[in-house]
Write a structure and sequence with these properties.
With 114 residues, the chain is mainly α. 68% of the residues lie in helices and 0% in strands. The chain contains four helices and no strands.
């Protein structure tokens, strides 16, 4: 017996199953980008919160969060220089957090439309 592959006719009940798989790769990639932006913003927001609540700087967890936030916000370090240290930390780490959220969600939304 010969098994030939013929295209699925557009009016076939199985055609909708085939169409639903077309954007799976783009949706997964969009979800990954979306999640990366959220996690990055989460670390930055957590560091702002820990700093403003005066968390113990000698704690290993606080040190890890600070190191991760410093790594994520290296490009925005000391954009704002103010006398009030709390406001300075809020602005210098809040700006990258907002940008990571906007970029992550924006790129993901654009990819889902493709």
């Amino acid at each position: 017996m010969e098994n030939t592959r013929e295209p699925i006719p557009p009016n076939s009940p199985y055609a909708s199953q085939r169409r639903s798989r077309d954007g799976v790769g783009a949706n997964r990639t969009a979800l990954i980008i979306h999640t990366i932006g959220d996690v990055a913003a989460g670390f930055l927001g957590l560091w702002i919160l820990l700093y403003l609540l005066q968390a113990n700087q000698g704690n290993a967890f606080v040190d890890f969060v600070r190191g991760t936030a410093d790594w994520l916000a290296w490009w925005a370090r000391d954009i704002f220089t103010m006398d009030n240290e709390g406001v300075r930390v809020f602005l210098n780490y809040g700006l990258p957090a907002a940008l990571y959220l906007l970029l992550g969600h924006g790129i993901a939304a654009r990819m889902r439309r493709v």
